[in-house]
Amino acid sequence: MYAAVDLGSNSFRLHIGEPIAGQMHIVRTARDPIRLAAGLGPDGALTPDAMDTAVRSLRDLGAILRQHRLDAVRVVATNTMRVATNAEQLLPRLEAAIGHPVEIISGEEEGRLIYMGVACALAKPGEQRLVIDVGGGSTEVIAGRGDEIALVESFSTGTHPQSAMYFPGGRVDAAAFDAAVNAARALFEDAAAQYRAHGWQAAYGSSGTIRAINEVITRNRLGDGTMSIASLQALRDRLIAAGHVDAFDLPGIKRERVIVMAGGLSVLLGAMLEFGVRAITAINAGLRLGVLSDLELRARRSDRRDSAIQACMRRFGVDEGRALRTAAIAGRLYDRLAGSDEGLRRHLLWSCMLHEVGQAVSHTGAHKHAAYIVEHADLPGFTNREQRLMRTIVLAQKGNLRKVREELGAPDLARAVLAMRLAAVFMHARVDGDLDGLKLRMKQRIEIDTPRGWLRQHPTVAAWFDKEVAAWGEVGVGFQVTQV
């Protein structure tokens, strides 16, 4: 079984799923409507009360997780944690509360996971579709065919900013609603032509807010009773007639959710008008199901991070042969160094595949350009934390080690850096076929034993070893080469 925890701007949610006969069956769900986005102060920081509430919520969700035997757990945080200026201070508290790492994912990664969830639920491999997800702090729009994503973009508007800006105090009138819709359209207009050109056979709305809008429309037979533009406008008219969210009395939504629905409705109308969507189908699938599907794919060794690495290599014209040779050498060296972190080993190999991407910018300081690209490139499936880890390994591939001195305090990461540096040397010197007699140790110091005469056969390696002695010495690590 797998668990997905979604730290959204409106609610924290949990899904526990079990794959059976090719389908993900949800066996447990939980939701805590903590309204995290409302806790953002004028300075962009979450208030102490908001942070305390988030920690308490994750403590409760962690208790639910511990009731199940789980193969993997993934906790993802979305827009509010992306924009909060003090998110890094809150992260350790959240991780301690739930007992698992918390990943702040990009808007594009959020969109990709949403689409994965929708594609998993629909199981229509040939369908060309558009997916719109109106969240608490952002809106994701994704176009694709079957499981394949063609376009994904995250827009900086959602239910909370729209409600706070255009419906302050819960007041709703025609002028404010028109202004809210037009503001949303303005954000979408630059991307609209590209999405229209791609086209779709069906459009889906995947967020809880869109499902709430659908519930009100269908239960009260507003407009034509479907999620059409006419029905959405009929719901808008009922909100305007009420004049205040507290006066809205149609069944199908709790009173405290009406303000969220009003903001979400303005965004959804703006998106549908701008993208040319006549009607949309609400679907009970999205981010959490996408996370569960991604965890299952990783368990089946079908990791989309591998394809992200390949795509990045193609984009920057990386020589695949050199990259594969470097990765193969680094993997062998890491194993000889008794590296115990299998996850870090995978990130080392991915780093090797991308270690030369910086040459597309300039040969001078290519490792620095590569580190920047690895950290900031759009790599589907990777978290910011993973990309920062790979950036460290790539940056440390050559030159001085002072720039990563603090990171070298982690023993396995220090082994990965050593494996990366030596792999690059051996790849350039073309000695990867002559490493069987080489022995490596890294404890208090680095010790390399070479067969007698080996360095005479590979004189450039001897020159590189001299540089390594100096580089490691600068960070307080001895480096000794002995011929045996």
From TrEMBL:
InterPro entries recorded: ATPase_NBD (IPR043129), GppA/Ppx_hydrolase (IPR050273), Ppx_GppA_C (IPR048950), Ppx_GppA_N (IPR003695), PyroPPase_GppA_Ppx (IPR030673)
Keyword flag Hydrolase: yes
Ppx/GppA phosphatase N-terminal domain location: 21-298
Domain (Ppx/GppA phosphatase C-terminal): residue spans on this chain: 305-463
A Pfam family hit: Ppx-GppA_III
CDD domains: ASKHA_NBD_EcPPX-GppA-like
Keywords: Hydrolase
Protein name as annotated: Ppx/GppA family phosphatase
